[in-house]
Amino acid sequence: MITFISGCEAGAIMDLPSLQSRLSCHITNSCMGVDCCMDVQKLGLSLNFYLNLDICNNRFTVGVENLNRTISILNIEFGTIHTFSFMGLLKINYQIYDFPSERVFVVNVNMSLCLESSGCIFQQTILRDIKLPKPLCDFSQGFPVKDFSLTHWLEKQDVVISKTLPEYTVDLLFHQLGISGYLKDPGCIQSTNNTNSFGWNTLACSENISLPHLPNYVSCHLPNYCTGLLCCMMVPLLQRTFETHVLLDACAYKLSIGIEKLVINESLFDYTLNTWKTVSLGNMIRLEFKIEEIRVEKIYLFDAKMSVCFETHGDCRYKFDILNGVRIPEQPCSWSDDFVIPGFNIDNWMSDKGLSSSLKQLPPILTSQLLEDLDLADYLLNPSCDQSADKYKTDHNHGWNSGNKKKEKVTFM
């Protein structure tokens, strides 16, 4: 047997299967991919096959040798089994689940080597319900194109800079900056309906919040829990709008930051308050924000800026100050709510997943799915409590450990 070689941090990926002879695999340094080499003895050659989830660049790739398929991670059909075939000779079956709260993908990969259309001579499970931990991405890094300058880039394209760029030039620019796959189609619409004199739509928020006058080209609204903003920004040069948001749902302990389809969901347990954070799309569209909690007053202070930049060296072409120390009250939370799925029933849920209600324990992948569906995953301790720990040892004392070393008589009802 030949086992996996892992470039991941030790212990990051558990329970990798043993592999048959003539096959060896490697977990990539990012922990998000598998790279294998198989000796096909009958043909006297070796074949390289691979699968990689590059979440920081929004690319999923599966392939054999020089034949591969690359798509946006946003376009993956999660939970569906797909097949990639190397002209029938080698087939890769893969299935991917996304569990955002756990910050993992769960991946199943099987491969088959076939020398005839009616059957295969070699089959191997590469990954079975393996959790691949998502890396933290730096969405504030520079342009994908080294020392990028729109001025120089347009000169190479023989395009004269004017108030607006041709549509085909804009499409090429988005492609070369690697943001095409993140753009919504159609883009957001700037609406003046239900906005106040400062350009804000505050109908969903019941609080009376003092908001600044929005700059030209930007319209925003507040969510129903008030702590956050959703904006639509027009960039005249590109003749396109871009949607951005910063949403702090304190009752759910969640923070969501987004530019178009690029959405980063964080637990408030992991977020450092009163610190500036920058998220960018191709380094061109930039969203900066800072949130500070004033507990004694039960308010949050919000700062938010947006900018559009086209030069590695030099100022940004558009800069918008959206919020500057705006005070937004914390909203009261209800701690007696029922399931987030109305009328939830475990038997019905299991039936929907094709499981018998008599099953005594869920498979790990379905436990993860259930916790995700019920919005519970963010709150679980890791590691979980251990009944064999000293403080839980009960010596058959009706399930209780009083923690009292003195021998006192305790009556249990």
Count of spatially separate domains: 3
The strand line-up of the biggest sheet is 1-2-3-4-5-6
Low-confidence stretches: 1-6
- What can be said about the biggest beta sheet? 6 strands, mixed
User: Could you tell me how far the N terminus lies from the C terminus, measured between alpha carbons in angstroms?
Assistant: 57 Å
Give the ordered list of helices and strands. Answer: EEEEEEEEEEHHEEEEEEEEEEHH
How many E-type strands? Answer: 20
The shape, in one word, is flat
Separate helix tally: 4
Instruction: Write down the overall mean pLDDT.
Output: 88
Strand percent estimate = 35-45%
Helix/strand structural class: mainly beta
Helix content, binned percent:
under 10%
Radius of gyration: 27 Å
Q: Describe it for me?
A:
By secondary structure, this protein is mainly β. The protein folds into 3 domains: 5-133, no CATH class; 150-329, no CATH class; 346-392, no CATH class. The protein contains 4 helices and 20 strands. The chain has a 6-stranded mixed β-sheet, with no helix packed on it. Strands 11-12-13-14-15-16 form a 6-stranded mixed β-sheet, with no helix packed on it. It has a 4-stranded antiparallel β-sheet with strand order 7-8-9-10, with helices on one face.
Topology record:
Layout (H helix, E strand, L loop, with lengths): L4 E2 L16 E5 L5 E8 L4 E10 L4 E6 L2 E5 L10 E5 L3 E10 L4 E10 L8 E12 L16 H7 L10 H10 L23 E2 L16 E4 L6 E8 L4 E10 L4 E6 L2 E6 L9 E5 L3 E10 L4 E10 L9 E12 L16 H7 L11 H10 L40
